[in-house]
Amino acid sequence: MNAQFDMNDFTEIIVSEKQIATRLDEIAAQIREDYQGEELLLVGVLKGAVMVMADLARRMPPQVQMDWMAVSSYGSGTRSSGVVRILKDLDADLTGRHVLIVEDIMDTGMTLSWLLGNLRSRGAASVEVAALLRKPDAASVDVDVKYVGFDIPNDFVVGYGLDFDEKYRTLPFVAVLNPKVYGEA
Ligand code: PRP
Known about the structure:
Layout: E1 10-15, H1 17-34, E2 40-46, H2 50-57, E3 65-73, E4 84-88, E5 98-106, H3 110-120, E6 126-134, E7 147-151, E8 157-158, E9 174-177
Parallel strand pairs: 2-3, 2-5, 5-6, 6-7
Antiparallel strand pairs: 1-9, 3-4, 8-9
Helix pairs in contact: 1-2
The structure holds 1-O-pyrophosphono-5-O-phosphono-alpha-D-ribofuranose.
1-O-pyrophosphono-5-O-phosphono-alpha-D-ribofuranose (PRP) binds next to β2, β5 and α3.
């Protein structure tokens, strides 16, 4: 693939395309083993999880199912308010289902904490989380993430689903955004 991007927009690549693929192979193998013989529903959280969902789901047996939610935090104007609003709900009924939430990143943990509570209240047989990235230094709530790709520093990162101003989601890697892009250098 010949993606076009300017490396000057980033100060550092923190997770390469190859590292992502290798780690997803490992996580997918673990998930296949853990859910052997069970029907699994992957729940992706729009929009950031689109890339990791596509790549993780293709490492699952073809019986795996996908559904999507879109949520938005509101209150103080930041995504870390802890108050979450559903913009698009699941199509699936979760009663008796084994559910795995698929996220690109856990930052403060507010979104996942709320989602776990919400989905667990719907009668699922189990609800677990797979997150490609986690920022331990940013966490403000304790969330049990069963499958984690990479723990990363508390920098402004973009790529592989993560955006700045809706841009850079399509990068094949995860990179630290150069402050010049958002006007601070
Ligand atoms: C990002 C990410 C998580 C959430 C994590 O989504 O995809 O859903 O933030 O942050 P938290 O741990 O502090 O709650 P965002 O709200 O940026 O929307 P997007 O996925 O559409 O980019």
